[in-house]
Each structure stands twice: as C-alpha cells, then as structure tokens.
Amino acid sequence: MRHRNRVAVAVLAAVIAVGGCGGGSGEQATPEPAEPATTSAVTTPAATTAVAEAPSSTAADSPAESPTTAAAPETTVATEPAATPETTAVTETTVAPEPTAAPETTAVTAPAAVPEGPPIPALTLELDDGTTFVTTEATKPVLYLFWAEW
Amino acid sequence: MPVVDSVAAEFAGQVDVIAIAWASTYEKTASAARGFLTSGATRWLLDDSVFADFEVTYQPVGVFAVGGVEVNRWFGSIPEQELRQAITDALS
User: Would you say A51 and A10 are in contact if contact means Cβ atoms under 8 Å apart?
Assistant: First the structure.
C-alpha cells in the first residue's frame, strides 16, 4: 500500500504537470498549431517515464500495476490532409497555319554506276574537220568505228 | 557506213561517233566519207596507229566506250537495229 500510494502520488504529480503544460492560461483563443501540440505530447511520456521508473526500482513485485499507461493522457494529433488544389486541365488547341508554299523538294541523284571494262587508250585524235578529240576527256559515250574506204 | 551515220544522227548530242579509217590515202578516205557520212554527226580521221592502240586488226569493228571504259565491242557489220539497241543499252 505504501508503494501504491507513492505511485499514485507520482501519477497525480505527472497529471498535474501535464495539465500545467497544456495550459490553463486560456489566454489563447485560437488552437495551437500542430507542432507545439506534438511537442507536448512527446514531453508528457518522458515525464511520466521518469516517474514510472522510480516505482520499478523500488517495487518490483507489482509490475502489472503500471499507472503510467493509465494516467498518461492520450494525445491525438489529428492531421488533416493538406488540401490539394483543384487542378483544371486547360487544353489549348493550336491551329497550325496552312502552308502557303509547297515544300521544296531536293532531288537526290544517285552516283552513276561506273561501267566495267578495259580503259580506252589515252589518245588525242586529230579529226578531219580540224578539231581534236581527246579520248580520256570524253563527256558522252563514244562510238569508235574502225573502217576503211575500200 | 551509211547505217552508222544514220544511227549517229539519231543519237546526236548524246553520243560522239568517231570513224577511224586506215590503210588508204587521205583523198580516197575523204571521198568515201563525203559519200557515206552525210549527216554531219559522224566525224572521221585517217590514222593507222589508232587501230594498233585499240588492238583492232581488221575492219569493220565497233567499240563503244562510256566514261573512258570500253563497254562493248563488235566485229563485222551489224544490222542497224542491233547497233541502235547497243547504243540505247549503253545510255540506259
């Protein structure tokens, strides 16, 4: 009984301490923000734990009666989900301007195939009309016709 | 030769036709050319050495060259249609 009385006294002291922290001032009309409330909730168990450790060291025979848990006020911190701003999808419709001019087309010419065969002898032919014809500088296909007047 | 000259006239501007004569005199060759090569599309010369350079040992022989490369050679006279086809194939 003596121990129980001590424990009860300790619990009462803890409750009073908690009540003191909670504020009996009543000066603040608006509720405190979430963070200070959380701080007090954390502080409260620490205080009660300090009280609770004392009886455990002195009276080991009554661990079941742990007024600490019974006396500790439950602090429920209601956290409201942050209001998510409504999002409004705005779809902009962009009208592409009609092309006024036809796109330019670039003709890609494949490289001409190199003909196969023996090279023509490099000659400078003096023609009857007074001109010369260089076989290696011909820009067009050439038909060489070997003939005789007889 | 008249056949060759006729075909040369058909492909004037697309193909150069050079008639190389040999084993004769200039006067005789020129006279024959005036009779056979009337279109003006076939130019000619008399030079035996060119036969040797092209390794041609007799005539008539035709050599078709494209891009400085010999792509076709035929020996003897060929029909006009065959000559025309040979040139057409070479141009395609």
Answer: yes
CATH number, domain with residue B23: 3.40.30
Which of A114, A123, A145, A150 is the best substitution to test chain B (most B C-beta atoms within 10 A)? A145
Tens digits of per-residue pLDDT, A39-78? 444 444 444 444 444 444 444 444 444 444 444 555 555 5
Within 8 A of A126 by CB-CB distance, chain B residues are 45, 47
Interface test with B, best of A124, A147, A150 (most B CBs within 10 A): A147
Structure tokens at A84: 């998510």
User: Domains in chain B: how many in total?
Assistant: 1
Highest-pLDDT range among A2-6, A51-55, A103-107, A132-136: A132-136
Report the residue from A115, A128, A150 with minimal CB separation from B69. A115
CA–CA separation, A148 and B5 (whole Å): 15
For chain B, how big is the Rg over CA atoms in Å?
A: 13
Work out the angle between the directed axes of helices A34-58 and A2-22 (0-180°, nearest 10).
170
Q: Where are the domains of chain A?
A: 2-23+32-71
**How do residues B33-84 score in pLDDT, each as one tens digit?**
999 999 999 999 999 999 999 999 999 999 999 999 999 999 998 899 999 9
Domain membership flag for residue B92: no
